[in-house]
Amino acid sequence: MASNSSGGSDRQRVAQQRLRIITGHLQRREDGDSTIIAAECKAEGSQTDVSREEGKTVPRRRQEIMKWNGWGYSDTKFLFNKKGQAEFTGKRYRLSGMTIPALKEWFEGTFGASMQHKSPAAPALNSGAVQPPTLNEAFLEELKSTGIPFSHDAEDRVFRAHGHCLHEIFALREGKVGRVPDMVVWPNCHDDVVKIVELACKHDVCLIPYGGGTSVSSGLECPPEETRCIVSVDTSQMNRILWIDEKNLTAHVEAGIVGQDLERLLNESGYCTGHEPDSMEFSSLGGWVATRASGMKKNIYGNIEDLVVHVKMVTPQGVIEKSCLGPRMSTGPDIHHFIMGSEGTLGVVTEVTMKIRPMPEYQKYGSVVFPNFEQGVACLREVAKQRCAPASIRLMDNEQFKFGHALKPQVSSMFTSFLDGLKKFYITKFKGFDPDRLCVATLLFEGGREKVLQHEKQVYDIAAKFGGLAAGEDNGQRGYMLTFVIAYLRDLGMEYYVIGESFETSVPWDRVLDICRNVKARIIGECKNKGVQFQPLSTCRVTQTYDTGACVYFYFAFNYRGLSDPVHVYEQVERAAREEILANGGSLSHHHGVGKLRKEWMRETVSNVGMGMLQSVKDYVDPKNIFGNRNLL
Amino acid sequence: MSNTYRVSCGAGLENEEEFVDILEERRRSSDLGHALRTFSPHPYKGAESCSNADLNKAVLESQYLRYMAKEIAAETGSSVEEVREEACGILEEMSQNLQLKCIRLMGFTLTKVLKRLYSGIFVNMEGLNMLQQSIQEHPVILMPNHRSYMDFLMISYIMFTYDIPLPFIAAGIPLAGMKLVGELLRRSGAFFIRRAIGSDKLYWAVLSEYVRSIVKTGIAPLEFYVEGLRSRTLKSMMPKLGMMHMVMEPFFKGEVYDITLIPISISYDRVLEESLLAHELLGIPKPKESTTGLLKASKVLQEDYGSMHVNFGRPMSVRHLCEGKINRCQYNLVPRDLPQKPSAEVQACVSWLAHLMVRVQEEGSVMGPWALMACLLLQAPTRVLTEEGLPWQELTDKTLWLRKLALDFGARLNWPRQAPDTDVMSSTVALHGSVVNRKAGRVFLVQEEEPARNRPISPEEEMISTAAAVLMLASYRNMSLHIFVRPALLATALHITKTTQKDELLAFFCFLRDVFSNEFIFIPGNSSQDFEEACFLLKKCGAVHVSEQEVTVSDAGLEVLSFLQALLQPFIDSYQVIFRFLCENKVHVYAEKQFLTAVRNLATELILSGELHTYEALSSDTHKNVLSALQRMDTLTKSRASQQNEYTMNKAAVRRIDDILSGKIPPQMLHTTPEAKL
After folding, report:
1. Does A437 touch chain B (CB under 8 A)?
2. In this complex, is the C-beta atom of B93 within 8 Å of any C-beta atom belonging to chain A?
3. How far apart, in whole angstroms, are the C-alpha atoms of residue B147 and residue A317?
4. Cα–Cα distance for residue pair B518/B514, rounded to 1 Å
5. pLDDT of B557 higher than 70
6. How far apart are CA B570 and CA B236, in angstroms?
7. Is pLDDT at A84 greater than 70 in this prediction?
8. CA-based angle A446:A450:A453, to the nearest 5?
9. What is the ipTM metric for this complex?
10. How far is CA B626 from CA B43, B573, B577, B649, B658, in A?
């Protein structure tokens, strides 16, 4: 069993490096002996410049650092270089600057794609394609007097008109733009939001809250039928930690902060929230609350609903919040649950008090190879039964295992490749695992060093009962890295006629295997029916365990050469896959939310009465439908 | 000499299918070689490798059986262990124990028997290839029709020959009781199901878990007779739904992605058990299945039974068939391992699918000249057949006319092309020497040869002997009924109602279809389609003109229409005899046995007195069908009183049905209710 701790120390090193960069900034901690660190709303009316604190990731003009028609940072992408080798550009990730020799073969082999057949994106946004803004002059006048920054620049508007659903990105790559917000405002603090909402109500303007822009539910799409002026409320500048309460281990944070900034800033004080959704580089705290997000390490830290202690939301009826910070209350239905998952239909989440934890002393990755997926699921089920799940435990199916392998960067030494060969030989020949059936679980342990090692042993012992073999930290770590780069890979695929998407569900334990098999088969069957010429990639993984069930992720991609309307085909297949999920006892969504993409199934999901309840809340809170993104209901 | 030949289905060469005689190969090479051939099938790729013992263990340890055992223990007051022990016993009695060695032995024996009995066994290779493909993809259910004991290992025999995984076969428990043979069948993959399980909860639980496990694990293809029993009349029977539901459940519950149904139509030129079956129908009990009985029957092995056709139908996807018919979410809220009463939606879907399968079996069955000749022979008065004989020329002319009609209606006809038509018909009649014989240019019905007797035979005995021959003939006619029944209902509607209005005809058509739903197979909910089909076929053969509002008889159509109407007449007559019996009798409540005896006596009386012309009214199958039909139409209620079934009937309702059937109530008075069942 591999037991060196390079994974953990590596991470610490990175954290320290981050720290050094930002030191000199927030040294305020020294000037007070109080355990409460506070920051005030610094929104002075005249402040309209761009240069705010350097430590923050997201500028107002997002397009300066992020792609307008793809995932993530502009400087980071996959490409096939002149030698035909895959390369990952930039400096931001562990994989950055490396070549990935096996990717091309996997890519061509899996999708039947070819380097000769390219489907490049439109190079830049053609402002002519963007409708001129419909402005509400009275609203604009009054907004100007508040001094809150705004823009109706075409690029700013287009950037906030979409999330990252396949159809959204595909359209952008083709240079097609539908209904977009008519203007963007950047509130600086809670009070700014109050003003904006008041003005919007007064002048009947439609508001769409915008956090990190990582929605995959068509949640940010502007309803085409909306005739009012649509204003995108970009919360990215509300990104401060207002205070940290070390006695109660809570932090009060502005909701626009993105995950990576929140963790980094807390880390500086020795804390973390432990909430790490796969999108944490870009997604915002407010977005998490509004969609009921889930983080990779929820086994230790909990999902967003477990982390939130207090929420402030500005609605057309005023501000909703609780009166105290008690850890639990019996005061009727929890009003937080009207807010969590409201998907921007009721108001803007402005400030959140959430739990924090001391940073873990020790972290360790790990992985286990199972002879087949069935055994892997049985092991995860047992782990859940014994309630000993590590911070994260994920099980990839065979296709994903192969995919992960294709993403191995070039090995520097003969010795490493020799070792890899040896491992492969051991598993397939000596242990008799079928390379076309075996699958791998990736693990992340966190906590005190002793406890981690003990915990690790417990989990590996269970795994052994299901035929699992420890397969090293490296495989584990690469698995988690894959999570962050997979979205970049989709952009690469789209350069070569390959489109894809992932979607998730949650399902009781006894149905996990059935749903995985059936949904994957359904995807393949539907692709065939819809005339897809090549075998699609249809794969899944179990990403979270609960007492009574698991969260399952499906990945699906295909080569669309020869199809006249690939996005339509794609959407039909995804729809069929969702129906299959529901027919197999899966939920409509585990954490992506409903948005507009899955609205059609809401009624059967929550019953007529349930819909009525939600509708009546909407009717009371927002009778004029100011928050008119039309998600959910 | 080629060992393949073609069966025309419908008009035109493009519809021909190639059948290969699998005995040809056996006649040329060693039987032992065949029995010892290397058997290397490609199994279902999702199959869990699991032995028969593993399967049984998994069944006994299933969550479902545990739960049921607890429940039954609580109800009966016995301990859970006792119940589980009992379950274990049931499973032992039931389960198969397929062994290749045994299949080889059976293969060897079967080859010998088959070569002696049949001139050829024709199998459609295309269907077999498709089966081979689909067996690798999803769990496969083989659904043959059941016309003879010969069916039983036929599929396994073919699968063995063509390297396809051997099926587990659902069989009736009497077979298990046969010495040696029972065990041989068990080792050939048969598993045994008790008859009349009734409300034995534990038995149902073990059986359903066993069946579901076979499907879920994909350990082997499952073969079962959706009709439940061997058809005594060679006519398709109303499908039984219990087994069908068990088989489908794993799909409904998402435990498998899909299930493939393979309809298989086995057709015989001449059925081994023909005379036994006819006697059974006349109430002469069938001999109990026993090994000695089987050996005694070996004299039947001396005769010629023509050829057999095994037509493997196109694989049908349950997922595809159920699309839009089943909301699988209904299983989301209760653990799938727990017993759950099937919803009305599920029941309707299972019933629909089961009927559909029987229809597809019918459409896949191959009929020879004899089925057509039997139709025509039965339309001659019985007295003519027994005394004067039917002129050969008349019969052959009519048969050729009927062949054209059958092809127009889409029949799959096996009519050898190489020989002149008259030769074909002559040899057909020769093959069926047990039913008819040809003397001096005339065709006579064969009367059973009675062993030498001292006393003269009574009229009753003579009638029984005639009836047996007529019922044999009727059975062969039944093989072609599915081709004609829809147009025949329309022809009858035209004849009885004397109307041309399409809506009135539809109403009467639906009424007839409803009355005869136990007699012929109609897919529930398809009455309008059936009517349209009838109109289309009659129009196609030029018998009627069809417009928006009207269906009018053409001058040239009389021959077709009267043939079709006469085809149904024996059924109508038989039903009316029973209706009248029920109406005119003072009694309101009958015990089943009492009813059957009374009806048979009445029919005998009426035939002897010359009031009734059809001997088919003597068939117990018809009697039972009438009871089921009346029950289905809510005019009879069945109850169980002291060991046997009792029927309470609503006379007015029966009378009304009778009146409609005799045309006393005009069709305008009928409510068109194309069944709202599905």
Report:
1. no
2. no
3. 77
4. 8
5. yes
6. 17
7. yes
8. 65
9. 0.88
10. 45, 12, 10, 13, 12
Given the residues A73, A271, A553, A560, the one annotated as active site: A553
The structure tokens listed for B652 are: 């007015």
Q: Which two tokens stand for residue A175?
A: 């240079």
CB contact under 8 A, A511 and B254: yes
Buried b (16+ CB within 10 A) or exposed e, A173-195: beeebeebbbbbbbbbbbebbbb
Beta strand B140-144 with B222-223: parallel, antiparallel or unpaired? Answer: parallel
Distance, first Cα to last Cα, chain A? 51
Res. B646 pLDDT band, cuts 50 70 90: confident
CB contact under 8 A, B255 and A514: yes
- Residue B169 and residue B224 in contact, taking contact as beta carbons nearer than 8 Å: yes
Angle, nearest 10°, between helix axes B459-497 and B344-364? 110
CA-CA-CA-CA dihedral for A554, A555, A558, A564, to nearest 10: 70
Tell how far CA A318 is from the center of its chain: 30
- Show Cβ contacts of residue B351 under 8 Å, excluding neighbours closer than 6 positions: B239, B241, B524, B678
Residue A216 — very low, low, confident or very high, per pLDDT cuts 50/70/90?
very high
Instruction: Please report, for residues B449, B619, B621, the alpha-carbon distance to residue B468 in angstroms, rounded to integers and kept in the order given.
Output: 12, 10, 14
Q: Do B254 and A510 touch (CB under 8 A)?
A: no
Instruction: Give how far Cα A386 sits from Cα of A52, A395, A443, B58, Å.
Output: 48, 17, 16, 24
Residue A368 in marked binding region: no
The structure's pTM equals 0.90
Task: Establish whether A553 is a catalytic residue.
Answer: yes
Q: Strand ranges (DSSP E) for A457-573? A: 469-470, 498-508, 537-545, 549-559
Cβ within 8 Å of residue A255, ≥6 positions away: A211, A235, A238, A284, A285, A286, A289, A348, A349, A350, A351, A352
Q: Are strands A308-315 and B17-21 parallel, antiparallel or unpaired?
A: unpaired
Radius of gyration of chain A (CA): 24
Q: Nearest to residue A534, comparing CAs of A516, A555, A503, A557?
A: A557
Supply the pLDDT for residue B406: 95
A112: left (phi over 0), alpha (psi -120 to 50) or beta: left
Chain B contact set for A583 (CB, 8 A): 254, 327-329
pLDDT band at B590 (very low <50, low <70, confident <90, very high): confident
- Cβ atoms of A7 and A473 within 8 Å: the answer is yes
Question: How far is the C-alpha of A369 from the C-alpha of A468, rounded, in Å?
Answer: 5
Amino acid at position A91, single letter: K
CB B479 within 8 A of CB B365: yes
- Closest to A254 in 3D by CA, of A31, A38, A60: A38
Size of chain B, expressed as the number of residues it contains: 678
Residue A315 DSSP class: E
Whole-Å CA distances, B480 to B40, B369, B405: 38, 10, 12
Query: How far is residue B147's CA from residue B236's CA, in Å, rounded to a whole number?
Result: 9
- Three-class SS of residue A369? strand
Check: CB of residue A368 under 8 Å from CB of residue A469. Answer: yes
Q: Which residues contact A586 (CB under 8 A, 6 or more apart)?
A: A505, A506, A507, A511, A515, A519, A552
Find the angle CA(B67)-CA(B70)-CA(B75) to the nearest 5 degrees. Answer: 125
CB contact under 8 Å between A514 and B254, yes or no, is yes
Both tokens of A519, joined, read: 């949904």
Whether A90 and chain B come into contact, CB under 8 Å, resolves to: no
Exposure letters B585-615 (e unless 16+ CB within 10 A, then b): eeeeebeeeebbebbbebbbebbeeeebebb
Q: For A365-386, write each residue's pLDDT tens digit.
A: 999 999 999 999 999 999 999 9
Distance between B482 CA and the closest CA of chain A, angstroms: 34
Q: How confident is the model at residue A6 (pLDDT cuts 50, 70, 90)?
A: very low
